[in-house]
Amino acid sequence: MQRTTLRVPLGTKSTVGGPGACAFMPRGLPHAWKNSGAETARVLFLYTPARAGGLLEEQQRTHRAIASMNEGEVAELRQRYGREIAGPTPL
User: Fold this and answer.
1) If you average pLDDT over residues 7-16, what whole number do you get?
2) Which of 5, 22, 43, 68 is deepest in the core (most CB within 10 A)?
């Protein structure tokens, strides 16, 4: 196993990548990601339209993890940035 490995389910398919790998996640396609390697992974996300990355940017700016929010706060945050949980995580 590589030291850093990301597993990325995309719709009905899944891919695994190590350092330097790329994955394209089209809008509307259910997706997730998980580091299954032994070391911390570093990931660069590029969003279009830019609003899609706003949720993560807000979390970084406010230092507030979703786990620390109540259901109403999480629902409002997801609605504000057009995010939807499509079902249980495939990971």
Assistant:
1) 85
2) 5
Burial 3-37 (b: 16+ CB within 10 A, else e): ebbbbbbbeeeeeebeeeeeeebeeeeebebeeeb
Question: CA gyration radius for the chain?
Answer: 14
DSSP assignment, residue 80? H
Task: Give the C-alpha distances (Å, rounded to integers) separating 89 from 1, 26, 50.
Answer: 23, 18, 24
**CB–CB of 8/17 below 8 Å?**
yes
Check residue 81 and give its pLDDT.
85
Write down the pTM of the prediction.
0.58
In angstroms, rounded to a whole number, what is the distance separating the alpha carbons of residues 84 and 23? 20
In terms of Cα–Cα distance, which of 1, 34, 28 is closest to 15? Answer: 34
Question: Which pLDDT score is estimated for 82?
Answer: 82
